[in-house]
Specification:
Layout: H1 2-10, E1 22-27, E2 32-37, E3 48-52, H2 68-87, E4 92-97, H3 99-103, H4 108-118, E5 123-124, H5 127-141, E6 147-152, E7 157-163, E8 166-173, H6 183-191, E9 203-207, H7 209-222, E10 233-235, H8 236-247, H9 258-261, H10 264-278, E11 282-285, H11 290-298, H12 302-306, H13 308-320, H14 326-334, H15 346-366, H16 378-387, H17 396-411, H18 429-449, H19 453-456, E12 459-463, E13 467-472, H20 482-494, E14 498-503
Parallel strand pairs: 1-4, 4-5, 6-9, 9-11, 13-14
Antiparallel strand pairs: 1-2, 2-3, 6-7, 7-8, 10-11, 12-13
Length: about 500
């Protein structure tokens, strides 16, 4: 039987041949990072992701010269990366260099041998191009972002003003966490761009390792319940206090990774100056990077860019669903579970409906991701995988919502199963109940149908606000046994509805 199931999975016509791997090489002032993606970058869980702290920009002072020993270290790292890419059959390489190489008078002493090693040119990005890719990487994952995107690297700071996902202004500064710079120098440089100060109440989307280190420190010191950096919101007062502590003569670096502690005071000095000058109300830590922007512009199509969460979940579905066509059938069946809140305006209902439909579709794509795990741990594993999805296109609340749905898809209403504690935080009671109902809906539908789309196509749900009615076609009436009835009743009860079954 297992062999037959394996053949059915492999024969799924919805599966696509894996696109040859692609690679992005990001050559910065502090590190060189290689990321290799499968599926043309559509699902950004990397086949390989390694950073080499080459410190190429170290010693790049007033003379503007890359130091020979740093160049040698960087070339050695690229040689290693070239061998890895060759062994993995990488089809395309997007190699870019930023501040250190851009500013160096002797850049060719690095780029010429580096290009020979890679067998292709390296794009040395201008400040404008770098700012564009940084902003593009953020808006791929947060399409309607409004605020300041601040990418703090080893040798530069790029700042882009976004309004509803569109870049309005940008600027770049020649100092970073590896620089020797004083607070008054940073403040004077920021003051030369007065548009940065005209944004009271805005938010800063912090990109780069220094902002991630700030987020780790906030999680440790505040006891924040979800250990995921992307999307972490640090309120203004807490952000200000942390940055001030990092800037002291004897800085309190609790929670900052050891590898960042040496440079954190300088990074904090820069971050604090921007935070205060812009009048920001919070810092939002971003897990995106220039690499996301390169993928967005050079590899993804318009459909992919429209909602990257659904693109990612589709890729997971192709690798996990047992039978074709199931996610779409689940979405059609479970859409009637949406219930607007009392007193909402038409516009508010439409916004809630859009949010619900998006998360429902994602949950349906993810609904079979742990079907082949041991039944005693499926719920816990599924929820933890969703909480830890290596993607940046979901908020923390959306992670918990989706994890709650997947947990109940496998566990139902049982209380004797292991359960991630993160499912009890961040969501309102109403949102938690909504996610639970979707999970129970998935559990009922996939068990009742055996996970096959043709059975799901013969049933439909009608929700009149008081009664949830299951209409069953004659072709699958035999599938409605006591077990299925009980699970349907649990679903209706979780949605505060009466259960009714009709045979059409």
């Amino acid at each position: 039987m297992a062999g037959q199931l394996d053949k059915m999975v492999l024969a799924d016509p919805n599966r696509q041949d894996r696109v040859a791997p692609i690679a992005v090489i990001d050559i910065g002032s502090n590190s060189i990072r290689l990321v290799i993606y499968a599926s043309g970058g559509r699902y950004p869980f990397p086949l390989f992701n390694e950073r080499s702290n080459c410190r190429l920009g170290e010693g790049l002072g007033a003379d503007g010269m890359l130091q020979p020993e740093r160049v040698s270290v960087a070339l050695a790292a690229l040689s290693r990366f070239a061998g890895i890419m060759k062994s993995m059959g990488v089809a395309a390489i997007h190699a870019v260099a930023t501040a250190a190489v851009r500013r160096a008078r002797n850049a060719a002493e690095f780029t010429a041998p580096a290009e020979a090693i890679l067998g292709q040119p390296i794009s040395v990005l201008s400040q404008t191009e770098e700012a564009h890719y940084v902003a593009r990487g953020l808006t791929l994952n947060i399409p309607e972002a409004t605020g300041l995107v601040a990418d703090l690297g080893g040798g530069s700071l790029e700042v882009v003003a976004l309004e509803d996902g569109q870049a309005r202004q940008s600027t770049s500064f020649n100092f970073g966490h590896l620089s020797t710079v004083e607070a008054d120098e940073v403040e004077d440089a920021l003051a030369a761009d007065p548009w940065l100060a005209a944004r009271p109440g805005t938010r800063i989307y912090g990109v780069g390792g220094s902002f991630r280190a700030l987020g780790l420190a906030y999680i440790e010191q505040s006891g924040y319940p979800l250990p995921v950096l992307h999307g972490l919101r640090i309120p203004g007062e807490e952000a200000g206090n942390l940055l001030a502590a990092f800037c002291r003569k004897d800085p309190d670096l609790s929670g900052v990774p050891l590898g960042r502690q040496k440079t954190m005071p300088t990074a904090a000095l820069i971050m604090r100056a921007l935070f205060r000058y812009s009048g920001a109300e919070r810092i939002v830590v971003s897990g995106t990077s220039i690499r996301d922007g390169l993928i967005a512009d050079l590899e993804l199509g318009d459909v992919d860019r429209a909602d990257f969460l659904l693109v990612v979940c589709q890729e997971i579905s192709r690798a996990s669903h047992r039978f074709p066509g199931v996610p779409g059938a689940l979405v059609s069946l479970l859409r009637p579970l949406f219930r607007p809140r009392d007193g909402q305006s038409t516009e508010e209902v439409a916004q809630d409906r859009k949010r619900f439909d998006r998360l429902l579709e994602a949950a349906c794509f993810l609904s079979d991701m742990c079907w082949n795990e041991h039944e005693d741990v499926r719920g816990d594993l599924g929820a933890r995988r969703v909480l830890g999805l290596p993607v940046n296109c979901v908020t923390h609340k959306e992670r918990v919502w989706l994890a709650t749905a997947i947990y109940h898809r496998y566990v139902g209403r049982k209380t004797n199963k292991s359960r991630p504690p993160e499912l009890s935080v961040l969501l309102s009671r109403r949102r938690r109940a909504e996610a639970t109902a979707i999970g129970l809906g998935l559990r009922f539908a996939l068990t009742f149908s055996g996970g096959a789309a043709q059975n799901l196509d013969q049933v439909r749900l009608v929700n009149d606000g008081d009664i949830l009615t299951l209409h069953v076609g004659a072709g699958c009436a035999a599938l409605v046994d006591n077990h299925a009835m009980r699970r349907f009743q649990q679903l209706a009860q979780s949605a505060n509805l009466e259960a009714e079954i009709r045979y059409d």
